[in-house]
């Protein structure tokens, strides 16, 4: 499959990306294209489509294991899928989620991150939380673990929240999220991820942050975008979150659908206004 006519592929080299590349992309206003991934074949597909950042998400509880939440995903599951995803990557940077209750103390987070990095070949770990995980982020940073802090809608808290709902809608919650983003950055977070927050709040946090901010359901103004790979390929059954776009609808194969997603993030045609929240 020859997908070379894409402008973003003509500009890219096959050299492995590093955190410095994401800092440069933020500074230059080049959007970071990210997708989730769970195995080597999809990793190779995403890598040749020009995806910059690959996340082995605990969403594998939903899309691989068929559960309705991510709560049951184990660290062994994450290590396994991280390792088999890493095997398919050449250029893209690999980030892996720490699953529910594997980072409840700083030392537990360090031990779990060790497994994701040493066995799972992750180059960065992602943990869900705000100010309350700042100490953990600081501990990981001290020992050289790159960290992304996942704020806004935190799917691991589904049973506390009572569902998957937009976060940071009132002024007090929005101000708290802005403060937490700053604290996490000061604690050493290398990246932030915002899920399901009003587009205006995501723009505010992105403008204030010196590290790259990736969004999902966070509007067009974050430094990058992420979606679940099966959602862009039309493989997810049932009602879709409003930020999802099926790129398979206008594509003739998986390679063009995935490259079309990357191109749409790069040229800012995804996300459109209807994919964001007020
Ligand atoms: N296939 C898949 N895609 C995802 O994006 C995803 C997963 N699984 N599993 C883990 C979490 C769960 N996510 C979700 C799930 C549902 C909504 C949702 O239905 N949101 C409503 C917002 C409701 C409101 O307005 O408060 C929506 O209409 O989009 C959002 C994120 C995102 N993640
Ligand atoms: C949706 C993304 C951000 C995630 O955390 C996951 O796939 O688990
Ligand atoms: Mg996750």
UniProtKB/TrEMBL annotation:
<dbReference type="GO" id="GO:0000287">
    <property type="term" value="F:magnesium ion binding"/>
</dbReference>
<keyword id="KW-0489">Methyltransferase</keyword>
<keyword id="KW-0963">Cytoplasm</keyword>
<dbReference type="GO" id="GO:0003864">
    <property type="term" value="F:3-methyl-2-oxobutanoate hydroxymethyltransferase activity"/>
</dbReference>
<feature type="active site" description="Proton acceptor">
    <location>
        <position position="195"/>
    </location>
</feature>
<keyword id="KW-0808">Transferase</keyword>
<keyword id="KW-0460">Magnesium</keyword>
<protein>
    <recommendedName>
        <fullName>3-methyl-2-oxobutanoate hydroxymethyltransferase</fullName>
        <ecNumber>2.1.2.11</ecNumber>
    </recommendedName>
</protein>
<feature type="binding site">
    <location>
        <position position="126"/>
    </location>
    <ligand>
        <name>3-methyl-2-oxobutanoate</name>
    </ligand>
</feature>
<comment type="similarity">
    <text>Belongs to the PanB family.</text>
</comment>
<comment type="pathway">
    <text>Cofactor biosynthesis; (R)-pantothenate biosynthesis; (R)-pantoate from 3-methyl-2-oxobutanoate: step 1/2.</text>
</comment>
<feature type="binding site">
    <location>
        <begin position="58"/>
        <end position="59"/>
    </location>
    <ligand>
        <name>3-methyl-2-oxobutanoate</name>
    </ligand>
</feature>
<dbReference type="GO" id="GO:0015940">
    <property type="term" value="P:pantothenate biosynthetic process"/>
</dbReference>
<comment type="subunit">
    <text>Homodecamer; pentamer of dimers.</text>
</comment>
<feature type="binding site">
    <location>
        <position position="58"/>
    </location>
    <ligand>
        <name>Mg(2+)</name>
    </ligand>
</feature>
<dbReference type="InterPro" id="IPR040442">
    <property type="entry name" value="Pyrv_kinase-like_dom_sf"/>
</dbReference>
<keyword id="KW-0479">Metal-binding</keyword>
<feature type="binding site">
    <location>
        <position position="97"/>
    </location>
    <ligand>
        <name>Mg(2+)</name>
    </ligand>
</feature>
<dbReference type="GO" id="GO:0008168">
    <property type="term" value="F:methyltransferase activity"/>
</dbReference>
<keyword id="KW-0566">Pantothenate biosynthesis</keyword>
<dbReference type="InterPro" id="IPR015813">
    <property type="entry name" value="Pyrv/PenolPyrv_kinase-like_dom"/>
</dbReference>
<dbReference type="GO" id="GO:0032259">
    <property type="term" value="P:methylation"/>
</dbReference>
<dbReference type="InterPro" id="IPR003700">
    <property type="entry name" value="Pantoate_hydroxy_MeTrfase"/>
</dbReference>
<feature type="binding site">
    <location>
        <position position="97"/>
    </location>
    <ligand>
        <name>3-methyl-2-oxobutanoate</name>
    </ligand>
</feature>
<dbReference type="Pfam" id="PF02548">
    <property type="entry name" value="Pantoate_transf"/>
</dbReference>
<feature type="binding site">
    <location>
        <position position="128"/>
    </location>
    <ligand>
        <name>Mg(2+)</name>
    </ligand>
</feature>
<comment type="function">
    <text>Catalyzes the reversible reaction in which hydroxymethyl group from 5,10-methylenetetrahydrofolate is transferred onto alpha-ketoisovalerate to form ketopantoate.</text>
</comment>
<dbReference type="GO" id="GO:0005737">
    <property type="term" value="C:cytoplasm"/>
</dbReference>
